């Protein structure tokens, strides 16, 4: 009895902080999402109307929202697995017995993760430049006509995905390396004795043993990628023709550009529902 | 223990001579203007020994947000530079103090952007509008000694100069193109009560059709700003011979165009759809406004009066290239002899305010969006304008509710 009371006292500071800066704001924005709080409401609270689920129904009817949802899903479904695959590939290479200077490569691949996004974006804009960019210069050797990477609505999202995967794969690579090193060498030796080929060893030893790592990596990647914002904000401002307009970009514009805070709060909750749904589905798939 | 007390006593006596009457003004300047503002102030502080001014420089990209959060957080400055299209929003908030001043020496179209509901809330500081920058050598070769003044001739001139290239750069992500042309046809954009969109009205329809036709006819390339890697280079090579742009490009063009192009480019006011020319253009720029919560209204007014003096305006122009709001400042030789400024002076006498509703900035992004969809062939003109009016009506819903409620 006494010990549990003492435990609550020790927990109290942390719980208070979480309540003040996490729980209260969440409920406040839930309440906000049921109003049409905007610039006129800032002027006088009397100009606020309770709209119930009005923001949500308006949101679901707005084509721009569905464009944003479509783009975000495109980014998550294509960019997410690609990023995980590249991370795994890099982890296998870095972890291979044949590789020399392992720590050097680990560090090099991790450098983009810790580089400021804006600096990365500036460099990639040069790479993507339709006339003077390195990418089109290399493509012209194989006879490909210049591609307007960021200006063409069909190419803009693939360009953003390519840059994001390059920037982020190092982080998951390190987690995979840790997962690979945790697999006991005995398993590989046993498989080898049974005559398993390299591919069979990968499929039947490495992949199953990496299961928990996979779940962690894919859930965090999915959550992170659903919140796509900075890359299009810096590179394309959501254009061209809203081809890179994401849910968070939409929320930011509604909230802080047009000051529709009630509406923006409802976008935040829809995003929360999407992330929660995605996480639950992934957990179900793992079982 | 004794030293701090002594130091404190010294401080008190040191300030004692002034503190009864010294006023500290907090002023927010934006971007480069904020930087230059600091250079103008020593003279003001010399003339007003009882006023001290602290300038805080805010980057343009964050300015709107900062001003709004400052208002919500009760931390507004005494005086701020405010883009004149933002004024309706801050007036709707009740953030600004009403002002009185003599409008005589100011461009009337610019002045009107500072009057909201018949009350003055800002004093124009510098002005901005859009004109045409063009390659005078290429137009002369095509038979045009002066720039065309009517839309029909203007379009014909584009056809003649373009060769196998485009003629004019109108960036698709900028709303200025369709809006400036709409000002030419005197389109109202919104209904007179400001509660509904009026983009399907014949005058805007005419301007929109002219705009879209420039792209369909291959006279304007369907590109946005990010796709033109270097507009100065493209202008120099004649990839296009006309650009719709603002006063900042006078300086940029002089600096960035190759020396061989000196004297081969010029500025011209907007052509008009029908006589009389020139056509109307944007009434842009920044104003100086005083916040209602400021405790130093008198000192704030003195600062604005000082910054509005023609001599100070000329100095401001030489430091920034921002065009002065007062006509008498334009008689100064630095502006009077600038051949590229003449078109701006003429245009500034023919500018019109955009509808004064806080939603305007959001409305123009929708205008640019639908214009781009039409140009790219995803919508017909009728579909685009109908959808635009519908979107704008949705944005103005709160305004209609407020109009009914009060």
Brief sketch in words of this structure:
The complex is a heterodimer of chains A (287) and B (406). Chain A is mostly helical and 287 residues long.
Task: Describe the 3D structure.
The complex is a heterodimer of chains A (287) and B (406). Chain A has 287 residues and is mostly helical. Chain A is 76% helix and 0% strand. Chain A has a domain at 64-245: Orthogonal Bundle (MetI-like fold), CATH 1.10.3720.10. In chain A, helix 4 crosses helix 13, helix 11 (211-226) packs antiparallel against helix 14 and helix 13 (247-257) runs antiparallel to helix 14. The relative contact order of chain A is 0.13. The mean pLDDT of chain A is 90. Chain B has 406 residues and is an alpha/beta fold. Chain B has two domains: 21-128 and 283-338, D-Maltodextrin-Binding Protein, domain 2 (3-Layer(aba) Sandwich), CATH 3.40.190.10; 131-282 and 355-405, 3-Layer(aba) Sandwich (D-Maltodextrin-Binding Protein, domain 2). In chain B, the strands form four sheets. In chain B, strands 2-1-3-12-6-13 form a six-stranded mixed beta sheet. In chain B, a hairpin with a 2-residue loop joins strand 4 and strand 5. In chain B, helix 2 (31-47) runs antiparallel to helix 13, helix 8 crosses helix 9 and helix 16 (360-375) runs antiparallel to helix 17. The longest helix of chain B has 18 residues, at 2-19. Mean pLDDT of chain B is 90; it is low at 1-19. The interface between A and B is medium-sized, with 26 and 25 residues.
């Amino acid at each position: 009895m006494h010990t549990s009371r003492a435990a609550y006292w020790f927990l109290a500071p942390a719980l208070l902080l979480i309540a003040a800066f996490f729980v209260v704001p969440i409920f406040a924005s839930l309440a906000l999402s049921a109003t049409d709080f905007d610039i006129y409401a800032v002027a006088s609270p009397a100009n606020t109307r309770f709209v119930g689920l009005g923001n949500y129904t308006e949101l679901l009817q707005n084509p721009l929202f569905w464009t944003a949802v479509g783009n975000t899903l495109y980014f998550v479904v294509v960019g997410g697995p690609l990023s995980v695959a590249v991370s795994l590939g890099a982890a296998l290479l870095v972890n291979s017995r044949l590789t020399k200077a392992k720590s050097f490569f680990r560090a090099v691949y991790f450098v983009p993760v810790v580089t400021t996004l804006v600096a990365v974006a500036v460099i990639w804009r040069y790479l993507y430049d339709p006339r003077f960019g390195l990418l089109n210069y290399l493509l012209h050797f194989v006879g490909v006509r210049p591609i307007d990477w960021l200006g063409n609505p069909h190419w803009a999202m693939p360009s953003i995905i390519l840059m994001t995967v390059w920037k982020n794969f190092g982080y998951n690579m390190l987690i995979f390396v840790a997962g690979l090193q945790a697999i006991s060498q005995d398993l590989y030796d046993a498989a080898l004795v049974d005559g398993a080929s390299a591919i069979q060893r990968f499929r039947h030893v490495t992949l199953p043993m990496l299961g928990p790592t996979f779940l962690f990596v894919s859930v965090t990647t999915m959550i992170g990628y659903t919140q796509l914002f900075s890359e299009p904000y810096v590179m394309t401002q959501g254009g061209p023709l809203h081809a890179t307009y994401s849910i968070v970009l939409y929320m930011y514009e509604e909230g802080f550009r047009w000051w529709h805070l009630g509406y923006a709060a409802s976008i935040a909750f829809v995003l929360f529902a999407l992330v929660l749904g995605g996480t639950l589905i992934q957990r179900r798939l793992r079982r | 223990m004794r030293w701090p007390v002594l130091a404190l006593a010294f401080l008190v006596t040191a300030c004692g001579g002034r503190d009864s009457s010294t006023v500290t003004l907090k002023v927010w300047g934006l971007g480069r203007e904020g930087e230059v503002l600091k250079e103008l102030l020593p003279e003001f502080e010399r003339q007003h020994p009882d006023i001290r001014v602290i300038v805080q420089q805010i980057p343009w990209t964050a300015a709107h947000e900062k001003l709004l959060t400052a208002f919500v957080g009760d931390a507004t400055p005494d005086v701020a530079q405010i883009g004149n299209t933002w004024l309706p929003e801050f007036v709707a908030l009740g953030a600004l103090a009403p002002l009185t001043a003599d409008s005589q020496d100011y461009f009337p179209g610019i002045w009107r952007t500072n009057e909201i509901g018949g009350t003055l809330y800002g004093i124009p500081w510098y002005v901005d509008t859009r004109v045409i920058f063009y390659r005078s050598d290429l137009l002369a070769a095509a038979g045009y000694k002066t720039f065309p003044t009517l839309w029909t001739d203007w379009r014909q001139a584009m056809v003649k100069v373009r060769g196998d290239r485009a003629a004019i750069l109108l960036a698709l992500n900028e709303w200025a193109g369709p809006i400036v042309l709409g000002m030419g046809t005197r389109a109202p954009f919104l209904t007179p009560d400001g509660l509904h969109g009026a983009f399907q009205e014949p005058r805007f329809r005419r301007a929109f059709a002219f705009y879209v036709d420039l792209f369909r006819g291959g006279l304007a390339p369907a590109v946005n700003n990010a796709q033109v890697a270097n507009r100065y280079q493209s202008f120099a090579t004649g990839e296009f011979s006309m650009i719709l742009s603002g006063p900042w490009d006078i300086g940029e063009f002089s600096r960035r165009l190759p020396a061989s192009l000196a004297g081969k480019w010029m500025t011209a006011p907007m052509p008009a759809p029908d006589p009389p020319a020139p056509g109307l253009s944007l009434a842009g720029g920044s104003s100086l406004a005083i916040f209602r919560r400021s405790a130093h209204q008198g000192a704030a007014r003195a600062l604005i009066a000082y910054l509005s003096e023609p001599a100070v305006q000329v100095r401001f122009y030489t430091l920034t290239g921002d065009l002065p709001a007062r006509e008498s400042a334009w008689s100064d030789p630095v502006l009077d002899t600038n051949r590229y400024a003449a078109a701006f002076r003429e245009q500034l006498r023919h500018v019109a305010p955009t509808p004064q509703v806080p939603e305007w900035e959001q409305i123009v992004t929708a205008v640019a969006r639908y214009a781009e969809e039409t140009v790219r062939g995803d919508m017909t003109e009728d579909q685009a304008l109908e959808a635009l009016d519908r979107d704008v009506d949705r944005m103005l819903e709160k305004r209609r509710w407020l109009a009914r409620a009060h």
